[in-house]
Design a protein that fits this description.
Blueprint lengths: L2 H19 L2 E2 L30 E6 L2 E5 L2 E2 L7 E4 L2 E5 L2 E4 L7 E12 L1 E6 L6 E3 L9 E6 L2 E6 L5 E3 L3 E3 L3 E6 L11 E3 L3 E6 L3 E6 L2
Parallel strand pairs: 6-8, 7-9, 8-10, 8-11, 9-12, 10-13, 11-14, 12-15, 14-16
Antiparallel strand pairs: 1-7, 2-3, 2-8, 3-4, 5-6, 15-18, 17-18
């Protein structure tokens, strides 16, 4: 095999590896959140002792497994922070633009804390945020909190689809989806700390502080 052919094969292999990780993109004006930059410790420490089970049994961001079988994998989506059932987003964008993955998928109890202006978007016919019932019938419950603004949108699907409760207790939330903003409508949202529904067209819901 000559040198040119070896170089060609190496380049093709590198391109295929990048394509396998490119399930999501990022907005131009926000920090780079490319999932190709994924690193972290292994899920099992050197002493072989697993961490305590997480409130979520499964959590993935654009197909990147953050928690699997109730244990952290050690992987993180660049720009995010996860610990003990809390996913923190600070001025970042999560975009699922192709493939069969939600922007955020979880089973169990998940809290999303927002700082600054963040977006969660799916352009692949999948819900942007999907909370799925566990095999034993336990419902997935979502809490959105923080002091920032979160925009959630989905093309060809619900903005948020969650089998259990959706509680919003902080910040400003704008949700839109081609089928509906929220699978069960604005009445399924639990609003706390003086928050109210500012706008509800069915396909777009805005939640924020009452005037």
């Amino acid at each position: 095999m000559n040198i040119i052919m070896k170089k060609t094969i190496s380049i093709m292999a590198a391109v295929l590896m990048l394509m396998a990780f490119a399930a999501c993109g990022n907005k131009n004006d926000l920090p780079n959140t490319s999932p190709t930059d994924v690193s972290g410790p292994t899920a099992t420490p050197d002493n072989g002792v697993l961490p305590d089970p997480q409130p979520v049994s499964e959590l993935s961001i654009c197909g990147i497994p953050v928690v699997t079988n109730s244990q952290p994998t050690g992987l993180l989506y660049k720009g995010s922070d996860y610990k003990d059932g809390v996913l923190t987003l600070d001025n970042m964008a999560i975009l699922a633009d192709y493939g069969s993955s939600n922007a955020i998928y979880f089973v169990g109890e998940l809290e999303i804390v927002i700082h600054g202006e963040s977006t969660i978007e799916a352009m692949n016919g999948m819900s942007a945020i999907a909370g799925v019932e566990a095999e034993d019938g336990t419902q997935a419950n979502l809490t959105i909190s923080g002091d920032g603004r979160l925009t959630v949108s989905a093309a060809g699907a619900y903005g948020i689809s969650c089998s259990g409760t959706i509680t919003v207790n902080g910040g400003t939330l704008e949700i839109s989806g081609e089928e509906a903003a929220v699978e069960r409508g604005a009445e399924s949202l639990t609003l706390e700390n003086g928050l109210t529904v500012i706008e509800d067209t069915g396909v777009r819901i805005v939640v924020g502080p009452a005037e």
